[in-house]
Write the structure tokens for this entry.
Amino acid sequence: MTETAANSAPRRIQAILMDQFGTLTDQHGSMTRLLTAEASVAAAVGCGAGSGAGVLATSLAARGHGAGATDPPFEMSRTGRDRLERVCGTVEGWIPQENVTGASGPGDIDELHLELLDELLETEEYKVIAEAWSAEKRKEICQFWHRLDAWPDTKPALDAIRKLDPPVLLATLSNGTLRLLIDVARHNELSIDAHFSGNLLQSYKPNPVMYCRASELLGFDAAAREAGKVAMFASHVEDLIAAKQQGLYTIYIRRPTEDTGRRDGVKTFAEGGQVDVIIDDMSELVKLLRIGSGRRGKEIRVRKKERNPDLPPKQKKDALDALENQGVEPCTSRTS
């Protein structure tokens, strides 16, 4: 977390609306692993390495995982490349405009993923695998989205936030379905208080109704949003720009697979940019909230013991070491 971020730490955040796919979970990496395994099986069973299944497995493996992702080591059509990217990362990053504005369109993200997978298999590279994967198999593959893996820093950070005093509400705000959000949270054992999905709120981000309605359902009206009581946390700057327009405090996290091509250009408002705070790891979010809350509650009570001159030196050292391991900075100059 930059000095700018630390100095602009919010003082009154009571709830955080969190983008799910790409922000809390590694959607690209998870789908790459799952699709690679599935395509490799199809290639081994009957399609062969040079088939559509083999090409899909190779191209997915070549995409890699995270910042080091590379292009496939062969000529791949732009259509095939675009559709592969859309299948591997569409929940937050690619939603048809008709869904955003509330007009007709695929209202179930599972259906949308199935449509995109079908489109992918229509490309020249993957025609053979289209024969290997039946309609039922394709539906099964689209359920992979319900088993996406969280980023390594997600669960520890959410668990730490749940222990803050005063408490901070945690809710997802996503274009996925309610069932999808629940399944992913349960798969990763994430501590989340509520889920607000596109099908639940009958809209899609970046429609203003998504941010406003989710905040209202948690008990925060427009005045509360303007007062900074609700934050939006995401790895997609467009999501945060839309949230800011509705008064939410905005926290941007740089994820290696998200906002490709523009991630490094995102700046804080203090730097003339688009968001309030930028972080690189969710542990920084925990620190930000601790700063904003004044480190009240149990942590403060522990610090009072730290400042007790009668505390035995070894016990005091153990207490300080324990706090440091939790990412809490000692506050020895503070009076009771």
